[in-house]
Amino acid sequence: GENVGLHLPTLSVQEGDNSIINCAYSNSASDYFIWYKQESGKGPQFIIDIRSNMDKRQGQRVTVLLNKTVKHLSLQIAATQPGDSAVYFCAEKPEYGNKLVFGAGTILRVKS
Amino acid sequence: NAGVMQNPRHLVRRRGQEARLRCSPMKGHSHVYWYRQLPEEGLKFMVYLQKENIIDESGMPKERFSAEFPKEGPSILRIQQVVRGDSAAYFCASSPTPGNQPQHFGDGTRLSIL
Fold it and tell me: Does A49 contact chain B (CB < 8 Å)?
């Protein structure tokens, strides 16, 4: 079935620390994964993506890791800032089709 | 470049009325996706359209819901005879082509049913 879930519903970190948000997915046929950030009252904002033929991808202050063996995805945010406070969603795209399957979300709270 | 534009941002309807949600994709994007989000939940796929065609409507209820993406103008998600359970945020996303690339989202329409 399609089930993308998150281990930690809420994550609180101190400003300047690194954050790690985790996601488990169940569809081994998914070939594309995305992390989105959603602020209150807004739509999901693209952060970073990764294809299934990769295990790591880096952006500006963010890194996504993909472990296909255990079907696990993580988002690392370096030097977390107050502006990073939001809900973070992982999403997967099954190999066939174009819809995204979203996880339930993790709330990231950054303490100053 | 303008992003994905959705209107209205907020829509209030009484039970039994019709709701029309509009979405203009990003410039150059011909693929549109609609998702629904309940409070404190992730987004759930409803329908995927390309210009004048519905490609995948597997997530859209068979009754009362319909979607279109005409050759000219925005994509429309239409909900007839709304019920309380239709209250949600409805998001539209677009992409230039299908496949393994990001879908870019608008800021949604919050639908409230009285």
Answer: yes
